[in-house]
Amino acid sequence: MTVADLDFRDIVRAGDFVVWGQACAEPVPLTERLLAQRAEFGGITCFLGIPVADTVTPEHADHIRFVGYCGSGGNRALAAAGVLDIYPGHYSTLPAYVSRANVVLVQCAPPDARGRYSLSLADDYLTAAIDSARVVVAEVNDQAPATSGSRYLTARDIDIEVRTSRPVVRSLSTPASPEVTAIGERIAAVVPDGATLQFGIGSVPEAVLGALGEHNDLGIHSGILTDAVVDLIDKGVVTNDRKTADRGVSVAALLLGSPRLFDHAHHNPAVSLRPIEYTHDPARLAAQHRFVAINSAIEVDLTGQVNAEVAGGRYVGAVGGGAEFLRGAARSAGGVPIVALPATAGARTRIVGRLSGPVSTARSDAGVVVTEYGVADLRGTTLSERRERLLAIAHPDHREALRAKEFPC
After folding, report:
1. Which residues in the chain come in under a pLDDT of 50?
2. Is 178-404 the same fold as 3-164?
3. In a 3-state reduction of DSSP, which class is residue 29?
């Protein structure tokens, strides 16, 4: 079947919950077709992950209710327009949430000699959605990489197959500012050789990876893989040889990058895409020797609480897997749980007396906080000790005003 032959009026029912692959894994021809026919369904709900393609716009909310776990990328416009409902759960709970899916849209690589369709660019929460859906529509894209993992589809799993040939949507990284570069260098200094890394999305984690070029025998167990990881593999920095589990293999839930990353992962057994139940499993994370979690934040208050979701009254981030990875790193032998952020956003301090948004990570899970001005290790510290260490990494222009603020209990 071609996209032109696909009629969602025969597939989607009023009230259905529709899920599709996120980021580079989005089956764009399928989602575009679905949105074009949205007035025919009588009202459906669509779950959005991280958007890379500009497929969904606020205008599409006239007949569709949109739910997402994050406010990044194109979701930011939906949130600003008031048409994005937020699921505020930990990333590990997404499989249970999407298991209510009625219709799932996925992008696959063509079947191999054994008739197996690779999920190509993402497994993450798709496995849970596929296993529960009434209908699975698969875009089989002959330009999608065939990746290894724990899950493949067969013809029995696919209800409707649509053949395409198109370049995979790519995600472009943004150049790092001097402040972000400095943060990357500070974090690299506390990452030990032989560590297994988890990193989030954005310029700060990318800067950290860019600063690790002199390290040895690093491993990857993360939510994402990016082009920066390929750079470290090519340099011999990432070998995965000292991982406790999955030795020799970079493990992630999805690929987020350019054709360089996709080509690297194609038919490469040293890259494995796994479901969230595997990548975010607390016991598995804690068991990794020297597990280092590197995640960004919007604000950190003087007690160590983290807001990773709301800035200026708008939902721009996510609960995501930050707290889960930080806990895993805290329990890992030799692990380091890191939250990183620039000290300021414009004229505003990001080390704050009180958060202006929700508590995404509790102060009881506080680990190491890094800005361009230094490293504040909050592990095993009292509230007054945390206050002093966080003041020391705030922007110098804001330290006096922060010190004068009433200290939250």
Report:
1. none
2. yes
3. helix
